[in-house]
Amino acid sequence: MATLTSNRSAGRRILLGISAGIAAYKSAQLARLLKQAGCEVRVVMTEGAQAFITPLTLQALTGEPVRTSLLDPEAEAGMGHIELARWADTIVIAPATADLMARMAQGMADDLLTTLCLASEAEKVLAPAMNQAMWRHPATQRNATRLAQDGWRLLGPDSGDQACGDVGPGRMLEPEAIVAELLPSPAALAQEATAQGLHVVITAGPTREPLDPVRYLSNHSSGKMGFALADAAVQRGARVTLICGPVALATPAGVERLDVETARQMHEASLRLLDDCDLFIGCAAVADYRAEAPAEHKLKKRDDDEGLTLRLVKNPDIIAEVASRRDAATGRPFVVGFAAETRDLEAYARDKLARKRLDMIVANDVSSAGLGFGSDDNAALLLWRDGDGEGGESLPPQPKRRLADAVIERALSRLPSRHTH
Ligand code: C5P
Q1: Residue of the nearest CA to atom 2 in ligand 1?
Q2: CATH topology assigned to domain 13-185
Q3: 96-116: string of b/e by CB count within 10 Å (b at 16+)?
């Protein structure tokens, strides 16, 4: 579980991966700087890395045992590799060699570090370090592109003198520069505080529309994105109410949760909270229709019938109604919707943005494998109505929790200033 401070430096859990490059000597300084900033740091070294710097050095600097092997029963008995993968808020690999990048681009899991990277849903960052010709090689460039597509953030490399005598791109970014990229600046921290005093209401998960006492209409929404948004908002200091349909997820710490079943219950709860809401995010996959008259008793199948006809009636459009009841004077609440589409993403999302009178919409293409419904990752196109112009921003595939941070951040930065107390 992410702690209340996981977006800030203090308590942030950083898994530092070190691979076999001469720049590994700088990893000691990186570990030290991260510790000084208040992060919890655990180190994993590849076998080759240990030829450049000893595990003992990193152990002394972090105060934690250093892991080097996947098949080490003693270490596994302490914190198993899956546990370690879950523990991390961020994985940073510095230096990342050409070989390590190649293995990760292929999705290999042939040592502890690559296995952890595959198993972890943490934010992932790498700082390449290699000879300039190796960096420029089309194979490495291909791998770098693939890793970026897979959600890795690449920091550097720098250009300049190299340990091998060459001059060119491939130097690992200096530890201070890596830390500056990893940890929020004081300005960013001040920005985070903008959620203090705000009430954020989020709908999440599916709704369940009864057909009879034992059957219902529903959909595949897992609720993961809505829960990630609730966690992101509460960590920025907001008061968060999560109105959720039936989901199998733990409530993020500090979030007030209202469980509902049907669209009408979700509608009623949303409107009830409207007077005291600064930011409303409709992330739920609300059933568009419900049975006009759910049967009082279990529907029985009959041998002679030719099928069953259900009459469905429209459910209220919750977010459209919230947006239409927005306070004209204050603009409260700022309304953010979601659009899950399988084609013509931008056109459909823009239509919803306008038709439902939303302030912002998060559009995702749910036809992409591994993204959207039920998965842990998502990509999104953010669209918003901004005064007289319309803006947009494309966010690459990434863990839902990280995407949630970006969505909350973008929404907060667009909230009318009178919303902040
Ligand atoms: O029209 P569509 O269902 O694609 O719109 C998606 C957006 O509208 C989401 O933000 C969803 O939470 C919201 N919605 C709603 N009530 C409905 C249907 C959708 O709030 N009945």
Answers
A1: 339
A2: Rossmann fold (3.40.50)
A3: bbbbbbbbbbeeebebbbbbb
